[in-house]
Design brief:
alpha/beta, seven-stranded mixed β-sheet, 11 strands
Amino acid sequence: MPAEVQPASLDPADWTAFRAAAHDALDRALGRLEHLAEGPVWRPTPDDVRRRFAEPLPRGPRDLEAVVDDVDALIAPYVVGNTHPRFFGWAQGAGTPAGVVAELIAAGLNANCGGRDHVGPIVERQIAGWAAEAFGFPPASSGLFTTGASQANFLGLLIARDAALGHAVRASGLRQADRQLCAYASAEAHGCVRQAMELAGVGSDFLRLIETDADGAIRLDRLGAAIGDDRAAGRQPFLIVGTAGAVNFGAFDDLEALATIADEAGVWLHVDGAFGAMTALAPALKPLTRGLERAHSVAFDFHKWAHVPYDAGFLLVRDAVAHRETFAAPAAYLSRLPRGLAAGDDWPCDYGPDLSRGFRALKVWLTFQTLGADAIGAAIEANCAAARRLAAHVAASDLFELAAPVPLNIVCFALKHDPDGALGAELVMRLQERGLAAPSTTRLAGRQVIRAAIFNHRTTFADIDGFFADAARLAAELRSR
């Protein structure tokens, strides 16, 4: 017979030594945040470092100190850079030191928050209540953490589908529907809306992308005409997706008007508020969200403008019953009992597809408890002021020109006399490669332009001035060649 194998714990044999190494790792992490502005925004990962991540599976242990040394040498210098105050690429939050502590605490608790009667789902319900309060939703609204707004938008579409066809569609499928479903969104809507239509089986051919006005808002007359055309053709409108902060330059749809159209048409209004919904926390910007309180559901990210560590997307739904009945999937291994750990009628796994779920709610709870919603709102307003400053630099420049309105925190601009945007793209790459700043590019009216998305609470006017000076200097170099 084989020798009997004794159970072996994976805990450290020497807790004192491990605690010292863990404290050192935390100190290093916080030190990087404290001094991050002193280094480059981004640097490419060298080939010799890449080769280190092609090594085979480790079979034996190493000391934690040595592994953390590798993090410092091989990983920390080469991450995306979104914590840096001159990171302006894409819509990415910057995190906070308090968030680092929250992640540490959550990892230590290691709670599975898919369900059961423990404090994790209770905290998640409180976050839903906070979001409902901020956005003007009813207190009984339901909410669910997701990886991000892309997933939240997908789940919102599924709820709208069930609201239109009945929950029997979960079993019978879309082929049993008597009419083709159609959805409507702005031409500025995020690509995840199209993807959600595809994943849900409705089909992206039946997503009507409606023309926008000069401010980037959906044209209400064209929306009404599209809904009428589909009804006349025997199709069934079921969803309007409003945009609160479009990805290209931050445009807002008229959510109040969309809510009225949705009510009159009898369709679901879902709002993609990935970052723009958070303007509800900023008094000077809150009017942009007027009408959000009338939506049926809203998707947004705590990890963008609330600076909670990634990932922390969220879906808020007005009708908790419709939300639950879209996803609840009773199973023997999920049976509820009147008492004990399996008590409780509503588990998070009843409101989405995930059974295994981390304690995302804790880092949101700790962030808002330590910072307060008012400070987060003030940081949002400061980012918008920084964007206005950058836009003023561009408008006064002989080298650059604005490429879109600047309603919020995103500035799209281009080099003058650069019709295809090729020089602008080269400028972006040089800024990134030299570690000076990290804007990105996008396309507006077929032209490639430079996009500076200012989301970092650490960004100062000095950072804006320095970024523009560096961009102007490199643009002059490119012109001279």
